[in-house]
Amino acid sequence: MPKIHVLSKHVVNLIAAGEVVERPASVAKELIENSLDAGATSITVEIQKGGIGYLRVLDNGHGIAKEDVKTAFARHSTSKISTEADLDHIMTLGFRGEALAAISAVSKIDLFTKNVDEEVGSSLHSEGGEILSIEDAGVPNGTTIIVRDLFFNTPARMKFLRKDSSEGSAVEQVVLAAALSHPNVAFQFIREGKKVIQTSGDGNLKNCIFNALGSSFANEMVEAKSTQDNIRVSGYACKPIAARGNRMMQFFFINGRIVKSKMLSAALDEAYRDLLMKGKFPTCVLFFEIPPELVDVNAHPAKTEVKFADDRAVFKATYFAIKTALQNDAEHVAVDVKPVVQEKTIVAPTSPQTINVAPPATKPEMKTEAPKQYSFVVPELKKEEPQKPKMVFEQPSFFKREEPVAVAPKQEIEKPTPIPEPEVIVEPQTKDHRLIGELFATYLIVECGDEVVFIDKHAAHERVLFETLKKNVGAPDAQMLLQAIPVSVSKPEHTALLQATDELRALGFAVEELGETSIAVSEAPAALDVADVPQVICEIAENLLDGKQLSSPTQISELLHSIACKMAIKAGKRSDPQENKTLVDRVLFDPEIRYCPHGRPVSVVMTRAQFEKMFKRTL
User: What's the pLDDT score for residue 2?
Assistant: First the structure.
């Protein structure tokens, strides 16, 4: 019997759908891109059950003509391109003609649309890729697509989805990116019946950032502009003090398309060199206008990765724009931004309407001086293989010796006996001790009987914090704060924290909504310094947005590792003498404080005998 056979149309569609539709966020991205390509100036996205059970995208674009409604759901059907040459000049967000076919193959879809040149619109219903009905319908201009029961016919894919709150956050990130990429379009995002994003569509990027991400985020950004080698860069980047613990808030748009690029992130890092604390990353909303023939957007099925004809030119333009913005920060004129007037009416799924948003007040023109000219060298892009850090105890240079020569037993040793390597402390110290001081603002030197203990401040403090946080998981020893602590966060972080109140309670934190971009912390772990509460909450929020949850021991442990590392005393920073004394006491008398959460030793010890051998006092 033959072993090779042609797959059925249904199976082919399911395979194709897997390339485009991975989760509700993928569906939202494809439908929003279609709305933008249709010239929409107002887009509403609504989800329920994280977008798995219900996802609606409504726009006021030019709509789909009656004769094209059925064709729109066929594979590789598009109005964006028609010839091979068109692939070299793609300016639309979509172009493959796979989105609707792929989405319909794994869901139940209702479509309502009306072309601006027609008097009557159309409605379509499909399930599992099969069109069940097409009828005339009295609907407004534009298109509304409702996607229900995602993956209902492919249950195996359901197990790869995260819980509803995580999937909902992923959809919110998609809407957020789309809103930032098109400040001239009014966006609205409704999540589980609550409006969480609304932008005015007035074309002002700073206003859009303010309304989409929040005032605390927008007010800590500086404007960036540059034109180099036909590459125009514009947008905003954060002040160094406002850097975050991950790259979640780095938005790059190439000709209006959101992209991920390690090269652009590297250029950003280079511009902020020596300006950020270790473990912090800059945030930005940057737009790149590049001739389409110099960018390949057909490099990835999700169209989130692109290839540049000249990486170095793009790197240089990015670096120059950010570096100039940071140098001119002191002369930067702040823009007065105002929040959008919120509409309380939620549009019914079957009655698409145009969203009316009150425009903000007219703002005075900004007057800024021309940026200062300066010269600099853009470093070459280097691809280095990651190396695992090694724990090395180096002796001072005047102690270093050549490797000893092996000799036979009972033979006179002509070369000095090698100095033994320091031993990692295993047993807790219980002897009297004396803190001698700090070394290189990183290590503490402690005399303890006939031994000298060298303590890594960061590693020790990190382990102390980790143990403190870990003991509070599940059965927290929480303390009611005398006064609730307000914490400013971005809008996406705000939503993520409020979605995880039960998990936060299990860690010892009680939080409640204080405003659109702030929360109030009324309880915190008793062992946690009150001054550290805002930093811990912000760190948890960043991790939640990064997909890390508080639902399993492994995920909780990873999260606590990250929090402890960010909060711990930094190497190279001198500490208060009392803080040093407290840390030494904890290290010497607590057997749990032996290794940091990443496995590095907290302390090493050298004995008096080892010192005497080094100084030739003994053989």
Answer: 54
Burial degree of 117 (CB within 10 A; 0-12, 13-18, 19+): exposed
Q: Which of 424, 476, 395, 453 is nearest to 596 (CA)?
A: 424
3-state SS class at 427: coil
Backbone angles phi and psi of 170, in degrees to 5: -65, -40
Which residues lie below 8 Å from residue 399, measured CB to CB, with a gap of 6+?
419, 614
Which residue numbers in the chain have pLDDT < 50?
A: 15-18, 80-82, 86-87, 89-90, 94-96, 330-336, 343-430
Tell me if 478 sits within 8 A of 525, measured CB to CB: yes
CA distance 448 to 382: 46
Torsion angle of C-alpha atoms 274, 279, 285, 288, degrees rounded to 10:
60
pTM over 0.85: no
Tell me the residue type at 89: H
Per DSSP bridges, beta strands 121-127 and 108-114 are antiparallel
Q: How many whole angstroms separate alpha carbon 442 and alpha carbon 241? A: 23
Q: Regarding beta strands 284-289 and 250-254, do their DSSP bridges make them parallel or antiparallel, or are they unpaired?
A: parallel
Rg (CA), the chain: 30
Which letter does DSSP use for residue 181 in this model?
H
Residue 429 main-chain phi, psi, to 5 deg? -85, 140
Three-state secondary structure call for residue 197? strand
Q: What is the pLDDT of residues 463-472, one digit of tens each?
A: 888 888 787 7
Tokens linked to 30: 């494809």
Ramachandran angles phi, psi of 263, nearest 5°: -65, -40
Conformation bin of residue 69: beta by default, left when phi > 0, alpha when psi is -120 to 50: alpha
Cα 439 to the center of its chain, rounded Å: 36
Rounded to whole angstroms, how far apart are CA atoms 121 and 66? 7
Q: Distance between CA 275 and CA 243 in Å, rounded?
A: 10
Q: Which amino acid is at 482?
A: L
pLDDT tens digits, one per residue of 210-222: 999 988 889 999 9
